[in-house]
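User: Hi! I'm a student and our assignment asks us to look at how structure tokens line up with a sequence. Could you show me two examples?

Assistant: Happy to help. In each example below, the sequence comes first and the structure tokens follow. Example one:
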Amino acid sequence: MREPEAKKAQAEKPRFHSSSMKTRLPPFPNSWFHLAPLSEFKKDEIRSFKFLGHDIIAFKTGDDSITVMDAYCPHLGAHLGRYAKGRNNRLNNGCVECPYHHLTFDAQGT
């Protein structure tokens, strides 16, 4: 193989973050992770979690489905899982409501 072709082939190899190239782990979490049993989620209640160094919220969107999203409002960064007084926030017509400016976000984040 000529030198330019060898460099191109080497550059096309995927990058993996691992001390051993045998494991070939991707540099980000790429799997399913257990937060809590489905039975622990109550209807119209938002649960807050600290997960992989990030704050997230989760809530039931149906009988057997859970929605997980970033815990902070994109407007000014209020925590969507808590009211200002420390109580847990609740869903409002299936939407998460910001405790400060009352912006609402559905299960798709819209």
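Example two works the same way, sequence first and then tokens:
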Amino acid sequence: MRRVGDFNTEKQALRFWSYLKNQGIESSLEEGEGSQNSGWEIWVAEEDQVSSAFAFFEEFQANPEDQKYISTSQKEKEVKPTHPTGSRGFKQFNLRDKWQRGDRYPGTMTLSLIITCVAVFLLSGMGRNTELMGGFFISEKVNGELSEFLAGEIWRVFTPIFLHFNFLHILFNMYWLHELGSQIERKKGPKFFISFILLIALVSNLVQFILTGPAFGGMSGVVYGLFGYVWVKTRLDPADGFRLDPMVAMIMFGFFLICFTGIFGGIANWAHAGGLAVGLAWGYGSAYRWNHGRK
């Protein structure tokens, strides 16, 4: 979901919202927060319709009195205030609030990852079944070579993310996978989400393997990648609708740094670093595209 336009007058906002609706673009018309003069915003729900909505908005700005907009504006009368409390009729189309409520529930791919991690954790006897665990490590060799991967076991560069070695380990990772992953999946779609997960997993696992060897596992590298992406988007591209409490960001960055001191024992710190780097870079690239690339 992305904000595609801001309007100073309710009349023009309703006119453009009606036009988008006629073009088959699902959108939300919302009064801006704050004072009565804070304006109105148009939010588009589907990521693949955002580009078209931006193009329509640019055309509308050039000539808002064009007959093609005025001809559809009769629907403005249908969304005038009728509720006894005085709220506007278009508030029923508040997609931003709907998406924020939806963020509390995991997306399909996010839930699938959580279930897989929990299943592997339980089947491995909470990390004690070395025979089962061995098939998920990036390599079962200690010589620093990806011999299994080179022999065709391509999945090994991804599967360490499913390994967890104690209850707190999996609890921390599943909580943040749910909180951050659900946002990204719902706003960017499952195809982007799973591709992004695989990229973060690949980079974070390889960085950890190259620097420390094959004895590691966990979703935390991916979690830090998701965190980095959402953090950048909230700061540089708020129109994309992501949310992250500043205090949570401080805790995540603080935990990232403290782990390097070794106080928590064997932590895959370089996986954290690799995942975070991917998330920050991707988030910045996406924000740059929308803030500068479209101008």
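Here is something you could point out in your write-up. The beta strands are 2-7, 27-31, 40-44.
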